Fold this sequence. Notes:
mainly alpha, 62% helix, rod-shaped
Amino acid sequence: MSAGTIGRTCGSGYDAPNAEVPTAQTLEHPMADYLWFFTVAIAPFLVFAIVIYALLRRRRLTREEQTVRAEKTKELFEEER
């Protein structure tokens, strides 16, 4: 049999149910399923955790640093006038 006639019955164009014709589903690599699962299920939680971590690790200014910042800001705005 030639490659074109495998799985064909009487030339009707009907593929037999047990034919070994490769399809997109049979050729798909299983790693793609894992990548899709990671992208949809795990990645949003990972991004959420990174944002929470960054917010918690953010350094707050001390009162002295806040005072110095406010004074310097006032100086800059007074120079512009």
